[in-house]
Amino acid sequence: MAACLQLNAKPFSPLLSPNPVSTRTRKLGRISCSAASPSKRHTITLLPGDGIGPEVISVARNVLNLAASVEGIEFKYQEVPVGGAALDLTGVPLPEETLLAAKQSDAVLLGAIGGYKWDKNEKHLKPETGLLKLREGLKVFANLRPATVLPQLVDASTLKREVAEGVDLMVVRELTGGIYFGKPRGFGTNENGEEIGFNTEVYAAYEIDRIARVAFETARKRKGKLCSVDKANVLEASMFWRKRIMAIALEYPDVELSHMYVDNAAMQLVRDPKQFDTIVTNNIFGDILSDEASMITGSIGMLPSASLGESGPGLFEPIHGSAPDIAGQDKANPLATILSAAMLLKYGLGEEKAAKRIEAAVLDTLNKGFRTGDIYSAGTKLVGCKEMGEEVLKSVDSLVPSPV
Q: How does this chain assemble (predicted)?
């Protein structure tokens, strides 16, 4: 099944309900892993990557397996290298075999890429180049990044409770255009003979129009508010962005559209994040703003993402990095990857019941007070990556999600 953007599909719902009561149902007896015989089969490509990537992918795979077995789904996995791991094995950050495996699967789950070891490599030999080429190769142009402050973690936010409580927003980021891919780019010398580096921010109309429609559809199915973020007071590319967004807005008279310069948007996300519902922006601004939004929730280790295209498999990944300083120490927070697996089920495979089961299990685990170091506070129980995964597994096996 392709993880395509079905704009007329069932409404997007927040990845996690801020109200755990609406997500959880009464506990039943322990459900056997063999409770349902597999009736649906999907192929998933796993890309553990670098740093903490292998640790969080291992946990997420276990959670996926259990949720699938309970819901009568069977997964076939293929694990292939990407990023620094691929560089060490093959000499390139995205081997042809890895991209081919990803394209031939139903969905792709990525851990993390990068690390100090490869920081001094030439650009074409950096792990991050492999990720950009993977996105480009899969043609996943729409990146959905939810940021929801859960009641259980509101005090983990660095913002005051009254500012953070109730935040529930979605950043829709254009993923395969803009300055990360624009040409010309490179190094050279200027008229004074000085060495320079340069990149080009460029967007074609079709690139803006398609991400705009995804954003308007997403906003329509949330609270009907869309804020387009640009830098139209300075950049021609942003002036064109705003022009196209306004043109597409005519197709969505029921959605309230506003515009905001990126510097103001960065400030407003900290000052009053609840004013936002759905944000649409270009590649580089979306990269920065979604990471900023993640910290409102308490930890970047909590946030998943989905990258989708018009056809083919989707790419699902936590938005955190590879955290090489804690790699192999059982300190990583696996919840963002587990929730990325839930997004994979929901948006990539259309397996809503299994996705809801995982989402409910994460909330249940947090309700029980289990915390990794990044979200720990007094009165909660500090656990490592593996134990957090084990607790989520217990909840996956004992909770029944609300009907789809």
A: Homodimer.
